[in-house]
Each structure stands twice: as structure tokens, then as C-alpha cells.
Specification:
The chain has one helix at residues 8-11, and strands at 4-6, 17-21, 24-26, 30-32, 34-39, 41-44, 49-52, 62-72, 75-77, 95-96, 116-119, 143-146, 156-160, 191-194, 197-198, 258-269, 272-274, 307-309, 325-335, 338-340, 357-360, 369-373, 389-394, 405-407, 418-422, 437-440, 447-452, 460-465, 471-477, 481-485, 492-500, 503-511. It has 512 residues and is mainly β. The strands form seven sheets. Strands 1, 2, 3, 5, 6, 8, 16, 19, 23 and 25 form a ten-stranded parallel sheet that branches. Strands 4-7-9-17-20-24 form a six-stranded parallel sheet. Strands 29-28-31-32 form a four-stranded antiparallel sheet, with no helix packed on it.
């Protein structure tokens, strides 16, 4: 095949539309993005991978090729190139006190006075992007409890429970519905001691985990001309606070990208095209409990003089991205390769915060004793991503010619997407040598002129359609020279079908 050997770097156009003349061959791996109209053939050689420039990296997440003939021997990889996942929730770091004793969480404050300390819950992640994006969960709730208090004959220890982790992100949907996120982990208010008594002035209230986010809604059609990017999952929840601050979650998984291949004559796919959604990542780890120094200045100096805290709840994981979209269209096709548009798996929950133990061996002033606080709960999973959509449109349905290996599975427990092969998708065209014509200019900007060189006074029908087969303009005339207006049409490739003297022929027109 004579033609250009192309570097994908020279082709890179983000979401621009590029017009190229002559046969084009990709012979080494690189990134591509945008829409290409090629007056010639397009080939990806065996062993070569064309990566779709991701939406999150300055690209548009899609690769669209229109050419006379298209042959894919290598791979087009649009995994994770679609709409981005949501940002993560922050870990809980704030602590406060309605009585002015917030510093008692990690030290001594007004040792003889009663007081209450509160620790903030983990923060929820943000919804992903795209029409089927997963939604974020809710924040974890606050934990609160009494500080220590020194007494004349009986010291009482403080007990500050952990807060809850935020709920997990919902999984994204496209062709199949994603899964919901699960609740964040609860903080612990458990405590037990020997020869020690907790301060009774305020109630011990452990924080609860936030609610998980909802899955996105499916969009698009199973067998229509539409095709879309996959959507992003919501971000993971942040971990709850205790003595230690909680850690932030991680972002949601990106949706799969979009690949469109449209050949005027024949499309051959021997290699692989993939637009899989990204897995969600882990939720924020929770803060662990701790014990302060002994706050009372008496001879006993036991564990009952400290402020104790328990473990907080972990944030639940990030939602996964949905599978993206693949659309293949040609009058004839030989498709034996692999097409995949699967959803990702939701992220795991963050670790629980652990409690702490204080031991005291006793002396002449007091007996031995200990205090132990409980562990929080780990966060749950983020929602799984639904499967995407794969569509193949061919004019002919010869048995065995379109037989790809396909997967549109949802991640984990999410629903699978859709696969459709639609036949007779093109207007029948019979190119006969007797019908001769000339078209100029082509490419054109505002109009194109068609000269029918041997119409012989017959009534002629001209029909302009877009690449999806929608009729944009119809002209009936006996005039052998016809001017067709192109103003108002988007830049791109169109098909002109000419019927004259009982014959039909078709050609393509490029609008600049």
C-alpha cells in the first residue's frame, strides 16, 4: 500500500478535527485523540498500540476515524480515557469543645473541671463526571465524650469516642447500571477499666459512618446511532478522627473512552479495541485512639487521670468508572478481534482506627489497674461500574464476517452493558460506469457543484446524508449542473447519493 507512515504524535489533535489525504499507517505505539477524516485508507500495524488521550490529560477521551478502508491489526486502547471520577473526601481533622476544652483530646486542660470534647467525621467524596456518574456518599458523624476530671478522692478518666468514616462513592453507569457505595465505618465508644471510673458528666456518643452514594443512571440506546464516553465513579470517603486525624480517600475511577471507526468500503478488525472503566481506589484510613499524660497531681498517678480515646471509622471506597463506547460502521466488515467495554470494580474501604490500652502497676497510694478502648470499624466498598456499549453497523450481514470476542461485563456485581450488530445500516449503492459526474470543490466550505456529464435530460435526484444516514438535503432537477449549499453544516464527512436514468451512485463530500 502506498501512502504515509504516520507517527501518532504528528496526528495528535486533542478534540480537533483533522483532514488527511492519502493512505495512513500507524507503525509504532503512541497517543491519538480527536476526529480524523482520511481521503484514503487507515491501518494500525500488528504489535502497535494506539492509546486514546484521556479526558483528564488534555485530550477529549475519544478517537474517531473516518476513511475509505480501515484495518486494525494492532490495538486501540481507550481504557480509563472517559469522563473522570470524582475527587476524594478529606479525612477528619477538626476537634472542638462546647465547654472550651478541645485540647483535652491530646493533653491536659482544666484538670479539675468537667468538659466535653467532639471529633469531626470523615468527609464524603465528590460525584464523578458524565451522564451516568456515581454520586458521593455522606459525611461521617461526630463522636463526643467527657474529658477527665481530678477529684479529691476519686479521679475519673476522659473517654472520647471515634467519629464515623464517610460513605463510599457510587459506581458509574452507561449501558449497564453500576452499584451503590456502602456505608462508612462507625467509630467506637467502647471502653473498659479496672479500678478506674469514666467521667459521668457527659454522654459518650460514638460517630456513625456516612451513607454510601447512589449508582448513576444508564443513558444512550442499545442499537441507535448514538455513542458516548463512559462516566466516572464518585470519590472515596475520608476516614474519621480520634486522637489521630483521619486520612483522605482517593478519587473515583474514570469511565472508559470512546472509539468510532467508520469505513466507506470495508472495515477489518483483527486486533483489540478496549474502552474499559477504571477501578475505584481505597477509602480514607481512620484515626486511632490514644492516651494523654496523667493530668492530676496526687500520689496515685494512675490511668484514671488520663484522657482516653477510641478508634474511629474508616471511609468507604471510591466508585468505579463505567465502560465506554465502541461504534464500528462500514458497508462490509470482517471483524474477528476482541472488543471490550467493561466496568471497573469499586475500591476497598479504609482501615479502622484502633483503640489503646493504659496499664498501671500500682503503688502505696493506689491499686493497679488498666483501661482499654475499642477499635472502630473499617469502611466498606465503593460501588462497581456498569458495562458500556458496543455497536456494529454493517450494510451486509454475511455469516461469519462479524464475529468478534466481546465483553460488556459490569465490574463486580454491577450490570452488564450492551452489544448490538445492526445490519442494512447503509443506503444501497450501485456504482455504474454509465453514470458519470464531476464534483467541485471538494473539500468545500459553503457550497459544492455537481455536474452530471451524461444525464441526457433525465430527472435527477440528489440526496445528501450524514455519516449516520440522516437525510440533510434532497434535490430533484433535470438540470445537469446543480449547486448544493453547505452553509449551516458542521465540518466533517457527508455522503452524496445520485440517482439518474435508473442508476445510483454515491460519493463522499468533505465540509471544511
Amino acid at each position: 500500500m502506498n501512502g504515509a507512515v504516520m507517527s501518532c504524535t504528528s496526528l495528535f489533535s486533542q478534540c480537533d478535527t483533522t483532514y488527511l489525504t492519502g493512505n495512513q499507517t500507524i507503525n509504532f505505539s503512541d497517543f491519538m485523540s480527536g476526529v480524523y477524516y482520511i481521503d484514503g485508507d487507515f491501518t494500525i500495524d500488528q504489535g502497535v498500540t494506539v492509546y486514546v488521550k484521556p479526558f483528564t490529560s488534555g485530550g477529549c477521551g475519544q478517537l474517531e476515524i473516518h476513511a475509505d478502508n480501515i484495518t486494525i491489526k494492532g490495538e486501540i486502547n481507550g481504557d480509563y480515557a472517559g469522563f473522570p471520577g470524582g475527587n476524594p473526601g478529606n479525612g477528619a481533622s477538626v476537634f472542638s469543645s462546647a465547654t472550651g476544652h478541645s485540647s483535652a483530646l491530646t493533653g491536659c486542660n482544666s484538670k479539675d473541671d468537667a468538659g466535653i470534647v467532639s471529633v469531626d467525621g470523615g468527609k464524603a467524596g465528590v460525584a464523578g463526571s458524565g451522564a451516568g456518574s456515581g454520586s458521593g456518599g455522606t459525611d461521617g458523624s461526630t463522636g463526643s465524650g467527657p474529658k477527665q476530671r481530678c477529684g479529691n478522692s476519686n479521679d475519673t478518666y476522659g473517654m472520647i469516642p471515634g467519629s464515623g468514616g464517610a460513605g463510599g462513592g457510587g459506581g458509574a453507569s452507561y449501558g449497564g447500571t453500576g452499584g451503590p457505595g456502602t456505608a462508612g465505618g462507625n467509630g467506637s465508644g467502647v471502653h473498659a477499666g479496672t479500678n478506674s471510673t469514666v467521667s459521668p458528666e457527659y454522654t459518650i456518643l460514638a460517630g456513625n459512618g456516612g451513607i454510601g452514594g447512589e449508582a448513576g443512571s444508564i443513558y444512550g440506546t442499545e442499537s441507535g446511532d448514538d455513542i458516548e464516553l463512559g462516566s466516572g465513579g464518585a470519590g472515596a470517603g475520608g476516614g474519621g478522627r480520634s486522637y489521630d486525624a483521619g486520612l483522605p480517600g482517593t478519587r473515583g475511577g474514570n469511565g472508559g473512552g470512546l472509539v468510532v471507526l467508520e469505513a466507506v468500503n470495508e472495515l477489518t478488525v483483527e486486533g483489540t479495541i478496549s474502552v474499559n472503566g477504571e477501578n475505584g481506589s481505597v477509602g480514607g484510613h481512620a484515626g486511632s485512639g490514644g492516651a494523654t499524660e496523667k493530668c492530676c497531681s496526687d500520689g496515685c498517678d494512675d490511668c484514671g487521670e488520663a484522657n482516653m480515646s477510641a478508634g474511629a471509622g474508616g471511609g468507604s471506597g471510591a466508585g468505579a468508572g463505567s465502560g465506554g463506547g465502541i461504534l464500528l460502521r462500514s458497508e462490509t466488515a470482517v471483524i474477528s478481534g476482541t472488543l471490550t467495554s467493561t466496568g471497573g470494580i469499586g475500591g476497598n474501604g479504609g482501615n479502622a482506627g484502633v483503640g489503646v490500652t493504659c496499664n498501671y502497676g500500682g503503688n502505696i497510694f493506689c491499686s493497679s489497674g488498666n483501661i482499654t478502648t475499642g477499635n472502630g470499624q473499617a469502611g466498606g466498598k465503593g460501588g462497581d461500574g456498569g458495562g458500556g456499549r458496543i455497536k456494529i453497523f454493517t450494510g451486509l450481514c454475511s455469516p461469519g464476517q462479524v464475529n468478534p470476542v466481546t465483553s460488556v461485563d459490569g465490574g463486580g456485581n454491577a450490570a452488564q452493558g450492551t452489544y448490538a450488530h445492526v445490519c442494512a445500516a447503509f443506503v444501497g449503492v450501485e456504482a455504474l460506469e454509465e453514470l458519470r459526474f464531476s464534483i467541485y470543490p471538494n473539500p468545500a466550505s459553503s457550497f459544492v457543484t455537481v455536474e452530471l456529464l451524461n444525464a441526457n435530460g433525465a430527472e435527477n435526484k440528489l440526496m445528501l446524508t450524514d455519516t449516520k444516514g440522516a437525510v440533510l438535503l434532497t434535490e430533484m432537477t433535470t438540470n445537469p449542473t446543480i449547486t448544493l449549499p453547505l452553509d449551516g453544516l458542521n465540518s466533517g464527512m457527508y455522503f452524496l447519493t445520485i440517482q439518474s436514468n435508473g442508476q445510483t451512485v454515491a460519493t463522499k463530500i468533505i465540509k471544511q
